[in-house]
Amino acid sequence: MAIVSPSVLTCDFLSFRDLLPQLEASGVDMLHIDVMDGNFVPNISFGVPIIKSIRKYTDIPIDTHLMIDTPHRYIEEFAKYSDWLGFHYEAGSDPVATLKKIRELGVKSTITIKPNTNAEEIFHLLPLCDMVLVMSVEPGFGGQKFMESSLSKVAALKAERDRQGLQFLIEIDGGINAQTAPLAVNAGVDVLVAGSFVFDSGNMNEKIAELKAL
Ligand code: DX5
Ligand code: ZN
């Protein structure tokens, strides 16, 4: 069974609250929340207030994906409303200090890598990670095409997890659908993020069940 973390990026936030009971009933494991600052990525989404509101209305664990520059400046605020908190290795914060800080705040730590970053670059950080997020599209927008080059990174991270005797989860984000999700799971992915596949389908429950069954 794959762990499923739907990305709410494309949802209508003024009606999102009405969707929560259905999401809870669907058995999703996490809610993937994409924070974009218009600098680290060319798009702007939302910040702490939206996550704080979502937190208020559901107990589904919140999986925050920060796509912002110098994320260490905002870790404390986001940690208040997140169960999993991830930032990009490429975003200009000291990764060791930032991962430690997240754990000190009692939140699960995630390091995220963009498509052009090799998995080997973060091997030394893995003991500090509860999850590693491999981007399978350039971060910034939903609805992009899955990059198969992400699969070898997943396999490399899985092998290194075994080699170091670690427990972190491997998550993938971008272009996940009925065709690409099985490839990801076969390569070693534990957590599937899916945005457009789940929310633009008109049949959210069915799509979530399809991913969970992998
Ligand atoms: C993209 C975001 C994703 C996005 C995924 O930068 O990190 O979480 O919402 O959307 P899909 O599943 O449509 O590729
Ligand atoms: Zn994301």
Task: Name a few traits of the molecule.
214 residues; alpha/beta; 8-stranded parallel β-sheet; 8 strands; 34% helix; 19% strand; binds D-xylitol-5-phosphate; binds zinc ion
Describe the protein in words.
The protein has 214 residues and is of the alpha/beta class. Helix content is 34%, strand content 19%. The longest helix has 16 residues. The chain is globular and about 40 Å long. The mean pLDDT is 97. It binds D-xylitol-5-phosphate and zinc ion. D-xylitol-5-phosphate (DX5) binds next to strand 2, strand 8 and helix 7. The site of zinc ion has 6 residues, from strand 2.
Summarize the structure.
With 214 residues, the protein is α/β, with parallel strands linked by helices. The protein is 34% helix and 19% strand. It has helices at residues 16-26, 48-57, 75-79, 95-104, 149-164, 180-187, 196-199, 204-212; strands spanning 3-6, 31-36, 62-67, 84-88, 108-113, 131-135, 169-173, 191-194.
